[in-house]
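1st attempt posting a full record on here, be nice pls
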Amino acid sequence: MKNLKRISFLLVLMAFVVSCVCMKDKNTISGKVESIELGKDGYTARIKTEKNEIYFATISIVNLGGPENYKKLKEGDVVSLKGEIWKADTEKHLKVKEIVSVK
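the predicted structure (as tokens):
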């Protein structure tokens, strides 16, 4: 009986880990920077994806884990960003945790 409980717990734990790994890709966006709006400790970049979706990406030193990870994007840059996606009314927002690439 103890083995059955252990195996069940292990299976549930593995399912949880797999679901978390799969969710990481859903929190990545790629697109072109259309505009930049400066804020207190960073800025918000308006990103247009290939599917013509608009995201407002909040980029700050604190959310990126320090000044060594912080980059200043420019209008026209093609970027890939990871973070937490949330919606406000009809707008899509991304709290950027990692700047994957800038071209």
